[in-house]
Each structure stands twice: as structure tokens, then as C-alpha cells.
Amino acid sequence: MHYRSREVERVRTGSAYDCDVLVIGGGIVGLSTAYAISRAAPGTGVIVLEKEPGPARHQTGRNSGVVHSGVYYRPGSLKARYAVRGAAEMMKFCAEYGVAHEVTGKLIVATERSELPRLHALVQRGRENGIPVRELGPAQIAAYEPEVRGLAAIHVGTTGVCDYRAVARQLAAASGAELRTGEEVVRVDRRPGLGVAVRTRGGTVLRARVLVNCAGLHCDEVARLTGDEPGMRIIPFRGEYYELARPELVRGLVYPVPDPAFPFLGVHLTRGIDGGVHIGPNAVPALAREGYGWGIVRPRELASTLTWPGTWRMAGRHWRYGAGELRRSLSRTAFATAVRRLLPGVKDEDLVRAASGVRAQAVLADGTLVDDFLIREGPRTVHVLNAPSPAATAALPIGRATAARALRSLTT
Length: 412
Description:
alpha+beta, FAD/NAD(P)-binding domain, disordered N terminus
């Protein structure tokens, strides 16, 4: 669908605005939005502002690189629809632009009898989402992964891996948008009939007809800068990874059966496109929005987390789960013990610390962890307010949905 109109063309040729659409955030979702705008409405002026020196420095560039199949997500949800569609599109995009990728398939393994009903529920969910799923017994598990042990498993053939940083670079190049790095937005001024103006920390002022907020870890703060109340708060969770010193122990991707009460998938084994095997992530509260280690503390951001009522309600409900995650964060032995449920042959010394990531998890005031993608609109604004994993997988469909909203706002 094309959104070109005389109104858009009039704005492009006028002098009141620096661009038609201003995107805040140069991660994979922001860049996919710019890419989608260029495809749906060629000639629309787009500027992407990124506060870091380059794109994809946070969630996009600090994950396990998995292209998810969509097997986990509630049928009919945005996550289910966008992940299934996005996985195929991501692999096609990688092939078209020469980005390293591979369709590997993965195992989801039950190691305790109590997990078997949840595993069977995943089989049903996968089939409802249109994903081919094969059920396996112990001997069949060994045929895929000789070192992995379990009571039962499912094999999902459409899962893969890719280089998401390279994807982001290609999206930036292919979109034709102007990507400005080192530009942190500190003020937004929105006036009826006059569009949106932003000021960056360096003093740059830019005016646009429509603002799109894809700021990830800071999306709720940006929403409030525009005057829109997001109704949620980003609570940062650090995901810590190890690298497996003996990568020959794992052939592909191996996951535990996830707990449906949480939007986290548990500690898993991922053979990346570089041949190395990463183990993780766990999920512990970060002391800053970009808190990639316990030593990174930002008092203002920590206060934002601690003063949000949803934080305490969430903690009250899930403290047992959180205590286990914290123990694994502080003890390599505890982390290795969790890994040995899937991979009995792993030793403590096989785990080598790797770079961490931070998940931008939206939490409501009542303590609910927002499970689905969340996109909201205000006057001349579009806010992507919850886009953690599998957002990288689903980036192209998310980008199209966000772009469609921005373009509709342009023509009204």
C-alpha cells in the first residue's frame, strides 16, 4: 500500500520542516520503520536520530542472534503473527543483502516430568501458529544433539541465527533515510498544526510533521517528553551470557521449556553464525537502563524503577523466580548447574564470561509484565513501547505496522 499524497508532497517541498518523519532510535525497529516508510511512500523525508556513535548498540546488537520461529507466543498475538512472518522475511532479507545467516532449527527439551504438560502445550501452540513441530523421545534427542539429555523434546525446524548488527546496517543503507548518530533527544515540543520539534543534547533543533519513538530502553521517557503518558514503565533486566569453551558439545540451538508466567525463555544454548556457542541469558534487574554489569548504577534511572508501583507488585509476585536468577548471576557454579540440566557434560570451567544485554521490559502499574508488542499513538506521534525479544526477528513486520501509523498521521 502506498501513502503518497498531495499533502505529503506539499510538506516535502515546503520549508517549515526538516523532514516528514523523525524517528528516535537507531536500533533494528527504528531502522525497519524508516525502511518500511521508504518502501511504502518513496520520497518521504525521514531522519533517524541515534544517541550512540552508531546503530544497533543496545538490544539489537547484544542478543543471542536467534531468528525465532514464533512457537512460544499466544495465537493471534502480535508476537505470534509478526514472529512467524518476520522469521521468513528476515531470512529473505539476509539472503538478498548478503548478511550472514543460517536456518538451524532448535530443540526445546523437557528435563523433568513436571515440564511435559507445558511441552505438549507448546506443540499445540506451534501448530496453531502454523509452525511445523516434531515431537521427539530421548533417543531422537540424541540424534540431533548427542550431548543433550531430556525426557522429551520438540524440534522446530524454522528457527535460525543471523547477524542483527549487520541487518541494522543494511536497513539503514537501504532505507535512504538520513541517520544522524551522537544525537540524544532531550526536549520535544509539539504544537497543534505545527508538527513536532525536538532539541538534542548538542543543541540541534529539528522539525518534523510526525515523530516516531523507537527509543527502546528509553521509550517511556521519550513518550513523556512528547506529553503522551505511556501508562507503563521500562524496567531494565540484564541478561548475562557465557561462552562455551568446548563448543563441540553443542551442534545447534537447545532451549529449556519456558515458564509461561514470564516473558523470558530461560538459559539456552545457541550456536551462532561465528561457530561459537553462547549460553544464557538469565534475567536480573539492572541498576541502570544500560546497566550491562553490577558496577553500572545511574541513580536517576534506578529511582525511576524503584518509585514505579509496578516494580514492587511484580517483585512481590515473582520473588522466588528472581532469587534463582540472582543466584545464577552471582555464581558461575549455580549457572553451570542450571546448564547441566540440558547438557550434563558441561563443567564450571567450560563457562567463559561474555558480553551482557539489557531487555527493555514494559511493566504496568499493577505489576503486570507486558507480554505482547505494544504500539500506541498520540497527536503526530507513534510510540513503540514494548519491543523486546522477538522484536529483532519481527523487526520488518513491526516496522511496517509502525510506518503505516506514521504515514496515516502525515495525511490527516
